[in-house]
Write a structure and sequence with these properties.
The chain is an alpha/beta fold. It is about 45% helix and about 10% strand. Strand 4, helix 6 and strand 5 form a beta-alpha-beta unit. Helix 2 packs across helix 10, helix 4 packs parallel to helix 8 and helix 15 crosses helix 16. About 40% of the residues are buried.
Length: about 450
C-alpha cells in the first residue's frame, strides 16, 4: 500500500465520470512538470527534490546539528508563509501537546521547544516570545530569501537586538542561523557581516514548495526531529510517479481531477476536514499551497480547514445545509490510535471508554470501546451525512503519523497542486496578488519610493 491513499466512495457518480475525462490533461500537466516545460517551469526544482539534492542536504544538516557545541532548549523560527508553515506542521504533528510541561516522564524524547515569530505583526505576540526567552537558551533560525519581507524582518530585528544584548555579538553569532538567498539579498549580506552560519533557499524552489529544503529541514533538525524519513517518504511518492503504466489511477492524479471536476461543476470552497487535531498545521500548510497556487485569474477553490468533531458543533450546520458550493476532503490516519505521536519508538497506548456503575450519561453502549474507534465512526457518519446533504466528499489517508508519512503528504500535495493548477490553466508557482497589500503597507508607513501611493491611500481613509 502506498503512503497516501485516495477514495471517492461518497462523490457523485456524474462527477466521477467528468473527473475521468480530465485524466489525459492531468497526465499532460504532470509530464510538463517532470520535464520542466510547464508555466513557471523555473520554479519546479522541488520536483524529485530528494534524489536531486534532498538526501545529501539532509545529511549535511544533520552533521551540522550533531556538531553544535551550543546548548539549546528552544528553537526560534522566524519566517512567514512557506518559511515556517511546513516546519510547524511537522513539529505540531509529532510533538506531545504538553511536552514542555511533562518533565522527564518517559512520554517521548526531550526535545527543544519550538516557537515562531515573524508570521504576524502582533506586538503582544512578539513580547510574549521575548518573555519566554528570558528563561530559555535559544537558537534562532531566521528564514527569508530576501531579508526584507516586512513581518520576518521586523521580528528578526527585535530578536537580534535581544540576542545581542543578552549574549553579546560573538555568542549571538553562534546562536543565529540564517536560511536565505545563496548569493545576494539583505539577509545574506547581514549574515556575512555578523558571521552567522547560513543555509540556502534554492532559487528554483518557491516558498510554499520549500518545506523539504533547508527552509524546513534546518529548524526541524535543530529541534531533534529525524529529517531523513521525511525525505524518504517524499521520495517514495516521486518514485511512484516515474515510468508507471497506470498513472491514470495514481492518487495524485485522481485527487487533482476529482477536485477539478467538482470546481467545474460549481464547488468554490474545498474543506480539508480532519478528525485528529495534530493534523491542524498540515492543513494550514495545505491552505497556503493551494491558495497561492490556484487562486489567480479569477479561478480556484478556496481552501479552508475544519477539525472534527469540534467543528460539527459550530460549522457543521452550515456544511450540512448551507450554500451548496462546497467540496469536502477528509484527511485521516489509519493507525492513529496505535502509535504515540511525539517521536519516540512506537508503542501501545490505547484509551477505552470506562465502565460505570450507573448510566446517567447514557454511554453504556460505548463501554470498553476505544475512543479512537468512536472518533472514526464519527468521521464516517459525518461523511455520509454531508454527502447526503449535497456535498461531494473525497478521502485521503496515511497509514500512521510519522515523519515518513508526512514527507509523503508534502510531496503528494505539491504534485497534485501543480497538476490541478495546470487543469485550470494557471501558473502554480507565482503569487502576483500577494504584492498588492505589501505596496499599500509601504505607502501607509512611508517607505521611500512609495510616498505618492501613501498619499493616494490616505485620501481614501
Amino acid at each position: 500500500m502506498g503512503l497516501v491513499q485516495f477514495e471517492n466512495r461518497f462523490f457523485p457518480e456524474n462527477l466521477k465520470v467528468e473527473a475521468q475525462k480530465l485524466v489525459p490533461r492531468a497526465l499532460d500537466g504532470l509530464k510538463a512538470v517532470q520535464e520542466g516545460t510547464c508555466r513557471g517551469h523555473e520554479f519546479v526544482g522541488w520536483y524529485d527534490w530528494p534524489k536531486k539534492e534532498g538526501f545529501a542536504l539532509a545529511q549535511d544538516i544533520q552533521n551540522f546539528v550533531n556538531g553544535l557545541d551550543t546548548y539549546c532548549d528552544t528553537v526560534v523560527v522566524i519566517g512567514i508563509g512557506g518559511s515556517y508553515l511546513g516546519t510547524r506542521a511537522v513539529s505540531d504533528a509529532l510533538s506531545h501537546s504538553y511536552g514542555p510541561f511533562l518533565g522527564r516522564s518517559g512520554r517521548g524524547p526531550r526535545r527543544p521547544l519550538m516557537v515562531y515569530v515573524g508570521h504576524h505583526l502582533s506586538e503582544a505576540g512578539i513580547l510574549e516570545v521575548l518573555d519566554l526567552l528570558d528563561d530559555r537558551q535559544p537558537i534562532v533560525n531566521v528564514i527569508s530569501k530576501s531579508g526584507t519581507t516586512t513581518e520576518p524582518a521586523v521580528a528578526f530585528r527585535v530578536i537580534r537586538s535581544y540576542m545581542e544584548k543578552r549574549f553579546g555579538k560573538a555568542e549571538s553569532s553562534r546562536r543565529i542561523i540564517a536560511t536565505t538567498d545563496p548569493v545576494g539579498g539583505a539577509l545574506r549580506k547581514l549574515a556575512l557581516e555578523a558571521g552567522y552560519r547560513t543555509f540556502e533557499v534554492p532559487p528554483q524552489v518557491g516558498g510554499r514548495y520549500s518545506v523539504l529544503t533547508a527552509v524546513g529541514l534546518v529548524p526541524l533538525a535543530l529541534a531533534g526531529f529525524d529529517i531523513l524519513p521525511l525525505m524518504q517518504g517524499a521520495d517514495r511518492v516521486f518514485a511512484s510517479l516515474e515510468g508507471g503504466t497506470n498513472l491514470s489511477q495514481h492518487p495524485v492524479i485522481q485527487y487533482a481531477v476529482h477536485r477539478t471536476a467538482a470546481y467545474l461543476a460549481g464547488s468554490r470552497v474545498e474543506l480539508m476536514s480532519i478528525g485528529e487535531p495534530k493534523l491542524h498545521n498540515i492543513v494550514e500548510w495545505w491552505k497556503q499551497l493551494f491558495g497561492e497556487s490556484e487562486g489567480k485569474e479569477g479561478q480556484g477553490l478556496f481552501p479552508a480547514g475544519l477539525t472534527y468533531t469540534t467543528d460539527l458543533h459550530s460549522l457543521g450546520q452550515y456544511v450540512q445545509e448551507g450554500v451548496r458550493n462546497l467540496l469536502e476532503t477528509f484527511l485521516q490516519i489509519e493507525e492513529s490510535g496505535h502509535l504515540n505521536s511525539h517521536g519516540a519508538q512506537p508503542f501501545e497506548r490505547r484509551l477505552r471508554v470506562p465502565a460505570s456503575t450507573d448510566n446517567t450519561d447514557e454511554l453504556r453502549y460505548l463501554e470498553g470501546r476505544l475512543i479512537d474507534d468512536v472518533n472514526r465512526a464519527a468521521l464516517v457518519a459525518t461523511k455520509i451525512a454531508h454527502f447526503d446533504g449535497g456535498v461531494p466528499c473525497l478521502g485521503l489517508s496515511i497509514p500512521r503519523l510519522g515523519e515518513e508519512a508526512i514527507g509523503a503528504l508534502f510531496a503528494f500535495f505539491e504534485v497534485s497542486c501543480a497538476v490541478s493548477a495546470s487543469l485550470l490553466g494557471v501558473n502554480a508557482f507565482d503569487q502576483p496578488g500577494v504584492e498588492a497589500y505589501k505596496k499599500n503597507l509601504f505607502g501607509l508607513l512611508g517607505k521611500p519610493g512609495f510616498e505618492s501611493l501613501g498619499q493616494e491611500i490616505k485620501k481614501r481613509l
